[in-house]
Structures are given as C-alpha cells and as structure tokens.
Design a protein that fits this description.
Rossmann fold; seven-stranded mixed sheet
Length: about 260
C-alpha cells in the first residue's frame, strides 16, 4: 500500500454502505410497496455487513429484521449499534434457516462479488415463503461506466480493472434480469436506478467515494499519481464538467414453489 493512503475502518465502510443505501432508497421503497410488505413481515438481508440497510429499514418501522454475513467483525459492528436485529455469521450459499422462513429476502451490492450468484439466489428462494419476494436492490455494471472529462476516463478504467482483479463481475448488472429468470422466479421486474445531477461549479469531491477508489487502486498507482487524479477530479468539479455514471440495476421476482 502506498504511503499516505488511508486504511478504511469499519466506520468508514459503514459510511460508504449508508451512502449506497440512500442511493437506492427510492427504488427500495417502490419494490417493498410492490411486494405489499407489512412492518411485521420477516425480512432477511444476505451480506448485511455493518447493518447500514438494516438501520434504514429499522428507522422506517420494520420490526422483524434478519441479517447474515460471512465476516464477523462487520456483524459485531452492527450489533454494537443496534441489538434488535437477528444477526448470524454464515455462508449465503448455505443459509442457517429453515425453508419458507421469510416474507422477503434481498441483497445489496452483493452478487457482483460472487463466483456463483445463481446458487446464492436459489438458496435465498429456498428460505423465502411461497408467494414471497426476492430482491437484488443494486448490482452495478462497471464495464459500462462513464467518466468525463479526461484523464478521469482513464481513472475509471483503472478502477474497473482493479475490481475485476479482485474477482468482481464487472458486467453483473446487465445479467441480473436473465439471472432472476434462470433461477425460476416469476413476475420479474428489472431496471436501472435513475441518475440526475446539476452541473454546478465548485461542487465538492465525494470523500467517501474517493476513499473507496483509493482503496481499490492503492496497489496499482503511486501516491503521486493518485494525487494527480484527485487534483483532476477537483478541477472538473470546480468547472462543473464532472460526469461519473455507473449503470446500477435492480431486480425483483416472486418465489413460487410447487405444493408438496
């Protein structure tokens, strides 16, 4: 790691995940309404991490919130902030729940990291009640990323390459609808999260976004090159010319199971 590159703490990551949760808030509320979800329905998040999305749901009044994550430190962080969630450490490919346990199951920025997302979705469907719903709230398509002006397009390409080297499927977003169909979900709805922004001069660099980018590129770029790109980012924002768009897909599908 380059000297001067900040190591992100769990609190930093929680801030990032909370930011992502706010990005998807409108579509999440739309999809929850489509699922006709009640506040007492059982809801499971796979890959719940530091509990950022669970926090948002808790504030909205949902009471039966479950989360599972493979990383204990993230779960411990979540438990330290809210003890009302039902949290467990485990593998999303082998969920420690009986079949038909939940009214709704979901994931958020998760499938792109998986070697076999279809297997994960099949397991989520197993623990979802017949007639219940399965959601993927956000899966980005990094291969279709748009960055402007130069040299920030090169910076975007470097980050996409770094993510691919970490095992990310940088085309996961565009595959989401087909994936939901392939695992047997019905009434599938897919789309892309909206993106609007004002070309305001002197807009500030998103510090959380930049720290994440630094973490991805710390092994690929020197501190000086990172600083040069940061300067280019600041100039573009001061000029009101910065464009950064990563198409991010969502999907919802109903779980229909044959009667025994």
């Amino acid at each position: 790691m380059n000297a001067g590159t900040k190591v992100l703490s769990l609190a930093d990551w929680h801030g990032r995940y909370t930011q992502q949760g706010k990005w998807t808030e409108d579509i999440r509320r739309h999809l929850f309404a489509k699922a006709q979800l009640d506040y007492d329905d059982t809801i499971l998040e796979v890959g719940s991490g530091t509990g950022a999305i669970l926090d948002l749901l808790d504030r909205e009044g949902y009471h039966q919130l479950y989360g599972i994550d493979i990383k204990y430190p993230s779960l411990a962080f979540s438990m330290s902030r809210n003890v009302s969630y039902h949290l467990a450490q485990g593998d999303g490919y082998r969920l420690p729940f009986a079949g038909d346990s939940f009214s709704l199951t979901y994931c958020h920025y998760l499938l792109l990291w998986l070697a076999n997302p279809a297997a994960m979705l099949t397991e989520l469907a197993r623990v979802t009640q017949p007639g219940g719903w399965l959601l993927a709230l956000a899966e980005p398509d990094h291969q279709a990323r748009i960055d402007y002006p130069p040299p920030l397009d090169t910076l975007g390409e470097l980050q996409t390459q770094a993510l691919a080297a970490q095992g990310v499927d940088v085309q996961q977003g565009r595959k989401l609808g087909a994936l939901f169909q392939a695992v047997g979900l019905t009434e599938v709805e897919t789309g892309i999260l909206g993106a609007q922004w004002k070309a305001e001069k002197a807009s500030e660099v998103d510090e959380t976004e930049w720290l994440t980018l630094q973490a991805d590129l710390a092994e690929r770029l020197t501190t000086k090159r990172l600083t040069d790109y940061r300067d280019a980012e600041e100039r573009a924002r001061q000029q009101g010319s910065r464009v950064l768009f990563i198409p991010t897909f969502y999907a919802i599908g109903r779980v229909n199971k044959p009667q025994q």
